[in-house]
Specification:
Number of helices: 9
Order of helices and strands: EHEHEHEHHHEHEHHEEE
Shape: globular
Structural class: alpha/beta
Helix content: 25-40%
Radius of gyration: 19 Å
Distance between the termini: 38 Å
């Protein structure tokens, strides 16, 4: 397994290999969700690249940038065991420039739901993902469905900028108790973790209602809100695959999303129906 820090060195190395590339961008603190992305990349590509970079431009003032979990040595071992060929470890200094040209999130879809809670967040996400995709130039890039809005905006960016990259969505990986895997789960105390299970429980209840032919969005949201009480809820929303709000569930074209704060930890989860 090769470890590279400089973007230009990575570009030269990958060009020399002349192989199909599966790429998994991460912020480190790798867990089973990341491993699932790597496994899919390994299955369908000749070369697997993982990047580890805690991106400062997607954190808002007062958020957990300084405290975001960093486990570089453990992450290297996980990548090695998962069959990764190259880890890209850039630094802020060799990724960003003074007075650089920037990409911005779309004015509507980038500022609803997660974007309303964290205005400017998705501009930072798209900024780093554009850079990383241009450095790696992968055949396929793998992203988790748990960050559904982020995934949608990255797909839009690739489409709108005519980028020759296939974006592969991968299903959310969950703990045995149903909690969606997240690097931020380490922040939760034992009691907070129990409270956090209300998030997946609300989504399970919504899925069960839909299986019994309840398609009215407001009825579903009302039931979810009861289950989520007393968590601090950022949003409970039902949208189609284009992230447009809907009033009636359309099976095969619906995503139900939850953002909630447990203790001091902000958690996201969703189901795709």
């Amino acid at each position: 397994m090769k470890i590279i820090h400089e973007p230009q060195e990575l570009q030269r190395y990958l060009k020399e290999q002349n192989k199909t590339i599966g790429y998994v961008p991460t912020m480190g603190a790798l867990h089973e969700g990341h491993i699932e992305l790597i496994k899919n990349a390994r299955k369908n590509n000749e070369l697997v690249v993982v990047s580890i970079f805690v991106n400062p431009t997607q954190f808002l003032k007062g958020e957990d940038l300084d405290n975001y979990p960093r486990r570089d040595e453990a992450d290297k071992k996980i990548c090695e065991l998962a069959g990764v060929d190259v880890i890209f470890f850039p630094t802020k200094e060799n990724i960003y420039f003074e007075d650089e040209v920037k990409i911005e999130a779309p004015e509507v879809r980038g500022y609803v739901l997660e974007g309303a809670t964290r205005p400017g967040h998705f501009s930072g996400v798209l900024r780093i993902v554009m850079k990383l995709l241009n450095i790696v130039k992968p055949t396929r890039a793998y992203f988790g469905k748990k960050d559904a809005q982020q995934l949608n905006l990255i797909q839009l960016m690739v489409k709108h900028y005519y980028m020759d990259i296939e974006i592969i969505p991968i299903n959310t990986v969950r703990e045995a108790d149903g909690l969606a895997r997240s690097s931020r789960n380490v922040y939760l105390s034992v009691d907070e973790r129990k409270e956090a299970l209300k998030i997946s429980a609300s989504l399970y209840a919504a899925s069960k209602m839909i299986s019994k032919k309840e398609f009215d969005v407001q009825t579903i949201k009302d039931e979810m809100l009861k289950i989520l009480t007393p968590l601090k809820i950022g949003y409970v929303e039902v949208v189609n695959r284009e992230f447009e709000p809907i009033n009636t569930v359309e099976v095969g074209n619906t995503i139900i999303l939850v953002e909630a704060v447990v203790g001091k930890t902000r958690l996201l989860d969703n189901i795709w129906l």
